[in-house]
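Researcher: Go.
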Amino acid sequence: QDDKSSLQADTENIVQDNEPSADISTEKSAQEKAPSPQTEEEAQEAVREKPPFFYFLDEPQESISTRFRKFVKSTDEFFADEDVFYESTGSYLKLSSEVTWYDKEETEHFTEVSSRIRLPLSEKKVEFLIERDPDVDEDDILRGMDITPERENVDNEYFAGIQATYGDRRTNWEFKPGIGAKTSHPLDFYLRLRITRDFDVGTSSFVRFQEKAYKFRKRPSTSDTSLELNIPFNDNILFRSETGVFQREDEDFYNLRQILSVTHRKSDRRAISYQAGAYGITEPDTHTTQYFLLAHYRENIHSDYLFMDLIPRVTYREENNFHSEYS
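Model: Structure:
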């Protein structure tokens, strides 16, 4: 009888010792049998939306591409590139005073005021603007050829207009149509269209295609097509190759350009750009009319609005038998 009592007690102890294990086992079994919170339709949808092979590389590539694009944009902003002002969604005022010394003891002075006011009624896709000159590309090309733009009564020319934006240049074509009129006499109207598309090349470089067209009522209409390759070598050095074709309505030929540059951001306040380029025309046949070499040093000397530029340049023009001209 004592043996039976002892056996019964041992049995009860064994059962008690096994009870937690039974509870754990029961809990695991319940978890394994529990249905997944994702329905079958959701699972099929996830399969359909699964990115292509090597999708795990997309995120770091996009991060690198975005970082280099910001570097390219910040470099253009530092050098006050007109395209940056054009693409900006805010207002700006730019005052430029240039003095050029030539090796023939000639001096040339040029002052320009350019501005753009974005009115408060503007929205993200539609802007109401008052701007200095809707066509800045011709002046930029003339300055690139070391020619001072000559226009009459430009100091009083301001244009009021509307500009819309459609699309995204990084994923599709971006269109920026605009229409406006001069606010002073004699009246002039303009139509403007800018088409832009960025194409990624590898993980950090990209090619930008841009078409610009300006139609005026009294001034010659112009168009410019450009293809720009941007290759950042690191966070401080940018290589750029620009190929462009420019045409005026009153000319029967095209103006061609090829410009190579290497820009070094020495700090947040200093940078230098080394450039080599050529200009040409297609009349009477396609030929080069000018070569140039220059170094463009720019420094932010006060606050965030006052800059100093030094640009030593060597030019070789066809009209001067391609002899060197220093400025």
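Model: Helices lie at 2-33, 40-48, 58-78, 82-87, 137-144.
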